[in-house]
Amino acid sequence: MRRSHFLSLIALALSGWGTVPVLAQDGAVRVAYQTVVEPAKVAQADGLYEKATGKRIDWRKFESGAEVITAVASGDVQVGYVGSSPLAAAASRELPIETFFIAAEIGSAEALVVRNGSGIAKAQDLAGKRVAVPFVSTTHYSLLAALKHWGVDAKQVNIINLRPTEIAAAWQRGDIDAAYVWDPALGQIKAGGKVLTSSVEVARWGAPTFDAWIVRKDFAQKNPDFVTAFARITGEAYAGYRKDPNAFTARTENLDKIARVTGAKKEDVPALLAGSGFPTLAEQARLLNAPTVQAVSDTAAFLKAQGKVDAVLADYKAYVTARYVVDAAKGAVVATKAP
């Protein structure tokens, strides 16, 4: 894996910075989402974000955080869903963004799967093998952290940059020996392999990962009510799921909607939801202070040590804000019954 390749992805993301962000001609807000399975996909399918914000939203699907950062930097989208690794890389390059909501604390929803018959029985067997991962993603960070933990030199592993859909296709063709990815690609490759590790273990080894919603600072300054309403709807969706996960997943319509938005198999949705933690609004304010700032700082330091970013900042507070979740909590609807 070439350091210059990693850095070029971030440089590409930042190359468009300075473009004045504009809404679509019809006033729509452009939001970049990914196919991660999480409770708020139901709210997305139901149009609750549009109702709460009073804006038309142009939902744009992306396959990786690196692509989302590029779109946010260029002004093509105003709000985006990214993992902690691309977030740390972008913040280290001082991209004017704010993290305003922790979307998921990643666990078994992301995993390293090795192909049956690949000859990989243990971590040390990864040397010389073809391992696919989306570069500048949480799984990329987790893979590097796992290799470091195992004492496997990443330079001895043939790490290949592929999008999730490309990973699934490459797996089907037999072009790769292993992959660290999320669903729906994860579920597809599990059928022909075994999990070597997941982000649950990697977190225990000192490298936790999370997903977050970010917003361009200039957009947020002009549209604080939109960001607050967006956070409120997401938080209410999470509270509904957390109140009774079994009741939430027992509703066929919830599974149908999440599957339709993400492309995951409906029958896999309950397990995928259980594979991550979804902080409620009451928990967000605490997380979006010292814990998240420290997590971004630690991630950036690891990326620098691995030669994936040139420098780290002295402080990452400017890239995390609890303002919107605090305001959202004041107007949140308290769930009175199971969803």
Give the helices and strands, then pairings.
Layout lengths: L2 H13 L13 E5 L6 H7 L1 H6 L3 E5 L3 H10 L4 E5 H9 L4 E10 L3 E6 L14 E4 L4 H13 L7 E4 L2 H10 L4 E5 L2 H6 L2 E6 H6 L5 E7 H6 L1 H20 L1 H6 L1 H11 L6 H6 L1 E2 L3 H7 L2 H16 L17 H8 L9
Helix pairs in contact: 1-4, 2-13, 5-16, 11-17, 15-17
Write a structural description:
The structure is a single chain. With 339 residues, this protein is an alpha/beta fold. 47% of the residues lie in helices and 17% in strands. The chain has helices at 3-15, 40-46, 48-53, 65-74, 84-92, 138-150, 164-173, 185-190, 199-204, 217-222, 224-243, 245-250, 252-262, 269-274, 281-287, 290-305, 323-330; strands at residues 29-33, 57-61, 79-83, 97-106, 110-115, 130-133, 158-161, 178-182, 193-198, 210-216, 276-277. Strands 2-1-3-10-4-11 form a 6-stranded mixed β-sheet, sandwiched between helices. It has a 5-stranded mixed β-sheet with strand order 7-6-8-5-9, with helices on both faces. Helix 5 (84-92) packs across helix 16 (290-305). It is globular, with a radius of gyration of 19 Å. The chain starts with a helix and ends in a 9-residue tail after the last helix. The model is unreliable at 1-7 and 334-339 (pLDDT under 50).
